[in-house]
Amino acid sequence: MISNQLTNKRVLLGVTGGIAAYKSAEICRRLQDEGAEVRTAMTAAAQEFITPLTLQALSKNPVHLDLLDPETESAMGHIELARWADLILIAPASANFISRLAQGRGDDLLTAICLAADCKVAIAPAMNRSMWEKEVTQKNLAQTKSVGISVFAPGEGEQACGETGVGRLLDVPDIILLACELFETGVLSGKKVVVTAGPTREAIDPIRYISNHSSGKQGYAIAEAAAEAGANVVLISGPTNLPKPDRAQLIKVESAGQMLDAVLDQVPGTDVFISVAAVADFKTKLTAPNKIKKNVNGNLTIELSRTPDILSEVTKIKGNHLFTVGFAAETENLLENANSKLKEKKLDMIVANDVSDSEIGFNSDLNEATVLTPKTSINLPKANKTQLARNLIEIISEQLAGFGTDARARS
Q1: CA 370 to chain CA mean position, Å
Q2: Are residues 231 and 379 in the same domain?
C-alpha cells in the first residue's frame, strides 16, 4: 500500500556490485511511489550488473558514477550530493562496500558521499551466506551501526549461488517500509507545535506592499520535521510558493497583524512555539484606498509605524508550559545580536543564522546556524534546510525534557 510517507524527501540511492543490483530498479520506482525525489550513484562493479541508463530513466536524473567527474568536481560533486540528500540508501550493499564503509574510506564516489553526509544513512546488505556469517563481516556491520548508520538486515532463503541461508537482499517492500520509518522519530509525540514561516506583506496601496526576501523554506522544513517527530503541527505562513507540508495544518496570512491574531488564537494548548517567519518590522501608518499615482513633480513620502512584535506578545502570556524558539536572521554581529534577542524577549532558545551569506541566506536550499539557550551554544553545520530542521527538532526535544521538569517546579 502506498502511503506517501516520503513526500518531499530526497533520497540518494547507492548501488554496489552484486546480483541483487537488479532490484535497485524496483527500489528506485517504489521510493518515488512513496513521494521521494530520487537520485542515484553506482560503483564500477554495480555497472556490470545493471546499466546506468536504466536508473537514469527510472529516476529521471543523471546517474553519478565517478568521484573525479570533471563536470561536477569543480562544485565538489560528492559534497553537494551529501548535502542534497535527506537519506542515503545503499541497496544492495556488498560485503566489500560495507568493509570500506566501516573503515571510513572515501576513495570512490559512494564512500566519499557517505563520509561527507550529515543526513540519515542506511545500508541493505546482500551477499553469500558464508560471507554474511564471517566474523569480520559482523564486526564491520557493528562498526557501521556504532556511527549511526542503519542496517536493513538481509533475509533468508535461496541465493543466486544455489545455497540457502541468510544474506539475500531484504524484500523491496520491507526496504521501503524501513526507509519510511527512519523519518518517524516520535520524540514530540503528543505535543502541539506552532510554527510561523515566510514573509509578511504590509500594504501601501491595493497593489504595492512592504516585504522581504524570505522564501519560507526553513519554516516549512521545520513544520515537516516536527510532524515527522509525531507532533500535532500548525503552520502559520505568510505568502510563499511552497506546497503545504504533509501532516500539518496550514493557516495562511498576509500581514503581521493577521499573523499575530492567528498565533494568539493557536497558543492555548501549545507546547512549542517556533517563530521562523521574517515578519516585516514596519507598515504604513495609512494604507491608500486606491493605487498611488506617480508624482512627476517630486518624491513620495510614506510614514511608517512599527508592526506588532509577535514573539514579545507570546512570551508575555506563555506561562511555564510553552517552550519558545525564536530566529535571528542577521547580517552582522550574529551571536551578539542573537544573544540580546534571546534575553530581551525571554526566549527559551534562539536560532542564529547569517543571511548576508547568499549560500545560506534567503531563498537558498542550504542553511547553517548556531542554536543558543540561556545555558548552551550548539553549532549546526551547513546542510540542506530539511536536515537542519531535523537537527533543530532533535535539540528542541532534548531541551523539552529538562524544560518540563523546570516548569513543574515553577508551577
Answers
A1: 16
A2: yes
